[in-house]
Amino acid sequence: MAKSDAEGNGSHRSTGGARVVVGVDGSEASKRALAWALEEARLRHASLQVVHAWQFPYEMAAASFAVPAPAGEMELWAKDVLDQALTDVEADETVSVVRRAEYGPAASVLMDAARHAELLVVGTRGHGRATGLFLGSVSQYLAVHAPCPVLVVHGPRPVAEECTEDTGASSTPWVRTLKEIPEEECLALLSSRSVGRLVVVHDGVPRVFPVNYVLDGHTVALRTDPGIKLDWATMGRVAFEVDAIDEERHRGWSVVVHGVGRDITDGIDTWSEKMRSQQLPPWVGGERLHWVAIASPSITGRRICVGDESDLPIGA
Fold first, then answer.
1. In Å, what is the CA distance from 62 to each residue of 47, 55, 78, 125, 241?
2. pLDDT of 195-213, one tens digit each?
3. Which of 185, 221, 223, 260 could make an SS bond with 288 (beta carbons 3.0 to 4.6 A apart)?
4. Packed helices 137-145 and 106-113: angle between N→C axes, nearest 10 degrees
């Protein structure tokens, strides 16, 4: 699938086998990573391999037990992501660029591309429309397992994090308000945790279970033994929550996933097999052979922010 750019006459073009690899997905974080990778390639007199990993959207996978062959339109989207990213950072011909749009999990695609490379550059978060390259959980995995040095470039600070710091040094009247967290940041926060709370309804009574989990794209999955979680989560409406609380400063955030529980233990579709391939060792005894995933999720989040009373709307 790789496509090489036409050779140019820049004085810093690579003449050897040195290679820098960068993952892009169309997000601002990945554009910053691409700009940094271009400069690294120039300094190292290396070629630059620009990689975009794409997969079927989770909605398509979750809705069917039979996943069709990759659609040509989605592959074109993936290639457009590469072309647009290079245009946005104003890449010129001083660096030899190779484009690679490949179907598959982001971590696997980037691990393969990074073989024998001098450097792998990734952003910290984001996901594209085609999509698969979720930078956050992926960048953390690559930082540990990649076969070459890894440079992680921070993206722009999400709006939901731009809360005024309450230092106590000002006489200004501070008020704490709840702000909605954008879905992109909700996904990043989900990927930053490994334990959450699964809520099912058993005989009309909500039951809450702390569980460890994995996140792939938009999908939360967990392992369990036969029992209430498996019986009542399967094909039932469920909720899943993670949070971080600072009791001393009265700060924190919460992300909630609502969806339908699905038992994917014996699923032979691509989506089920992909979810079961995730590394999720049980924390407690028991075989935990059953996999439950939350399909068709709705993901929301809120954060307690501190701000000046003058920032509040009239009547608040």
1. 39, 13, 21, 23, 20
2. 999 999 888 889 999 999 9
3. 223
4. 40
Q: What is the DSSP string of 230-266?
A: HHHHBTSEEEEEEEEEETTTTEEEEEEEEEEEEE-TT
Domain of residue 181: give its range.
Answer: 160-308
- What residue has token string 């809520």? 199
Domain membership of residue 316 (yes or no) is: no
Name the domain boundary from 153, 171, 199.
153
Structural domain total, the chain: 2
**Residue 215: strand pairing partners:** 220
Q: Which tens digits make up the pLDDT trace of 86-130? A: 998 888 888 999 999 888 888 889 999 999 999 999 987 544 433
Beta strands in 42-86 (DSSP E): 47-54
CB 302 within 8 A of CB 181: yes
Q: Which of 83, 74, 67, 60 is nearest to 103 (CA)?
A: 74
- More confident call, 8 vs 253: 253
Within a domain: residue 313? Answer: no
- Tokens 């993936």, residue? 78
